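Our preliminary data section would be incomplete without showing what the modeling component actually yields. Below, a chain of 334 amino acids is followed by its predicted structure, encoded as tokens that our downstream tools consume directly.
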Amino acid sequence: DRYLSYWSLFLGYIGLPFTIISYLYSIADVKLEKKALYVYLIPVYWIFLGISAMASFFKDDKNWDKTERNRAGGLEERMFERIKKHDELLIFCSAFLIEILFGLILISKYGSTIFNVDSSSYLYHARIVIDNGKYSGISSLVGTWLPLFQIFLIPFTMIDKLYMTGFSGTIVSAAMTGGTSVFLYKLAGGRNSRFAILAPVLFMSNIYTLIFGAIAMSEQTAIFFMVVASYFFKNYLDSGETKPFINCSIALILGSLVRYEIWPVAVLISAVFLVKEIRNNHIHKVAHVHLPVWGIIAWLVMNLMIHRDMFWFNNNASSNRMQTEVFSKYFFGS
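Predicted structure:
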């Protein structure tokens, strides 16, 4: 059983990540022809084996405690107890390294992780906050896009090599992917569930996760804050305590400064909190109902202070609304 546990650890945290990376590298180099379809099938066995290995590793092993050596606190027992205590750190490192390795593969093959206009724009706006001569300043962040993801990028874009290759975005997105994997694990039950590890594994097995986690796009950052908010809101619903709701609100505030899609979620969470506390006759807790929407309020105030228009992000020439109007007039004449 001891050697099986060692093998499970190897397959789960070393074999599975490198299998996914080698799989992606293989399909990137082989053209999609009938004779090349076998490339898609080769790693499937190893992926499922790795998933099974990780699931079995976190399963309580009844035979493990039967040996005198382990009852006496042997080296193996102490080592695996430490690993189980740091399972969240291992999950984070696994997801983070997968994305970093995938980003390095993209750079080695294409010379960059920048594949669209949005990625280059995120990096550019983060860079000019500090490196734009007399025009440097926070005002460059107040535009159509929300500012927090670009703020995360700023320290990495100051390194020319990271900026030019887009790897600064890879670092931020990879870290957010790792954090999301950890909170998905916690949301699925963590150490209390033998199948909780499947949540981050399935998340990382998604090709879109791998792609967006290796480029300078804000999706992974928004997903991270959404999952964190979901975790704490679930704790609030289970316990009825105010502290988890405050933690949920902090995540929603930050998320509301990353993607507009989180705005309706923040409003909905506030509404659910209000209804729940009124039904429970906890009128004093209603004072916290406004917390989740402060990210929205902060963005509106920033637009008002810098551009004298609270809704400038939706009224400027590069906004989605203005582009849609131009598109409609050009193609439909209306």
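The longest helix spans residues 2-29. Confidence is low (pLDDT under 50) at residues 30-42, 60-72. Preliminary results of this kind motivate Aim 1 of the renewal.
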